[in-house]
Design a protein that fits this description.
alpha/beta; Rossmann fold; 2 domains; seven-stranded parallel beta sheet; six-stranded parallel beta sheet; 13 helices; about 15% strand; globular
Length: about 375
């Protein structure tokens, strides 16, 4: 089977990129599969190791070289470059003649349905269906969100299949659609587990509005008042670094909450911690939850849409807390700090739960879907 992924870039740091390369590598290892990745931008270090069995084509569109806020970008990016992108993508697909073409939902998502071919088309939806509305904070943002949703409604029905990441998202938004499947992301699983003996709590994510780290810091202030020997490390960068630093200072947590910056080897550090915390306002899946659990960390997370409720088994491998309930979040963290046996029991369960998202388990779901779609196309 000939499989093509379409994506913006395979370089730098990005969850979508890492997952795409992981799946491409695994699919290419299957006999009689040929896997291609067609991308538009980038050079430099790959975001994830790429198998020699995966073929790549760089279309050289270079969307990212433009200033996205400039008027010239609107003309050049949305018209000239999109026209070039469609022409080059069409040429590449007609030369490869794939059985299945997958859009990961970036610059190609609006172009692919308009390129005719005998191949089946799949659109991966890496966010909750209503992520635009969840992210919108101003009237202008809500207008843009409405426009984006309108375009989705026009185009999603033209794909042979839509794949969403969580059952929660499917149940909330997709049940009435006949061409939607649920396949979670695979994760890189750790073979090592934490001893859970350190007095350190871990959080990971962009220092930005969706990750809601202000709420975590406020909750931790209650934890620190009871357990001053415990600390919280937050890995990531973003536009809220200054405001978060100010919150830490205001709450008197300068010696117990640390903004650690970006790290590319974050999973290798997870075994140095005893608990993972997440306070996101919304998620597409929550890959970092699975990665932390694979290291044997029990988790405490807001039950935000969408992901934590699919991944965490309440009271078994972690705790789900109503979004925004900082008192309960702090209580659950304190419960795991106080009860070492519970912490270690949940950590063992978390390590086992993470295996549910191994590439070996997820890959057959994709192959089954591809075989179903190609069979339909050939009949």
């Amino acid at each position: 089977m000939i499989i093509v992924y379409c994506i913006d870039s395979i370089h730098g740091v990005g969850g979508i990129q890492r997952v795409t390369l992981m799946k491409a590598n695994a699919l290419a290892a299957i006999n009689q599969n040929m896997v291609w990745i067609i991308f538009t931008d980038g050079s430099g270090q790959l975001c994830f190791p790429l198998s020699a069995n995966v073929h790549t084509i760089n279309l050289g569109i270079n969307y990212y070289e433009d200033d996205w806020k400039s008027k010239w970008h609107v003309l050049k990016g949305l018209f000239i470059k999109r026209t070039q992108h469609k022409r080059k993508l069409k040429k590449a697909l007609n030369e490869i003649l794939p059985d299945v073409v997958i859009s990961v939902g970036q610059s190609e998502k609006n172009l692919l349905p308009a390129i005719q071919g005998k191949w089946a088309t799949v659109r991966e939806f890496h966010f909750a269906r209503d992520y635009r509305q969840l992210h919108a904070r101003s009237v202008f943002d809500r207008i843009l969100a409405f426009g984006g949703d309108f375009m989705d409604r026009l185009l999603l029905g033209r794909y042979d299949r839509i794949v969403v990441l969580t059952q929660e998202d499917y149940d909330r938004h997709w049940q009435k659609k006949k061409n939607v499947s649920v396949i979670p992301n695979p994760a890189v699983l750790s073979s090592a587990s934490s001893s859970l003996d350190s007095k350190r709590i871990l959080a990971v994510g962009r220092l930005a509005y969706p990750k809601n780290f202000t709420s975590l810091i406020r909750a931790f202030s209650f934890v620190a008042s009871r357990f001053p020997e415990w600390s919280l490390d937050i890995y990531g960068e973003g536009n809220e670094r200054e405001s978060l630093s100010s919150e830490i200072l205001t709450l008197g947590l300068s010696n117990s909450v640390w903004l650690m910056g970006n790290r590319t080897d974050i999973q290798s550090l997870m075994t140095d911690y005893s608990l993972f915390a997440m306070t996101s306002r919304f998620e597409g899946f929550g890959m970092v939850l699975v990665e932390a659990m694979s290291c044997g960390l029990p988790v405490v997370s807001y039950a935000c849409p969408c992901g934590p409720k699919d991944i965490i088994r309440q009271g078994v491998d972690g705790f789900l807390v109503p979004p925004g309930d900082e008192n309960m979040l702090a209580d659950r963290i304190c419960q795991l700090i106080e009860d070492e046996s519970l912490r270690k029991e949940m950590g063992t369960a978390a390590h086992e739960r993470a295996k549910h998202y191994s590439i070996e388990r997820i890959l057959p779901m994709w192959m089954s879907l591809f075989e179903e779609l190609t069979e339909k196309k050939n009949t």
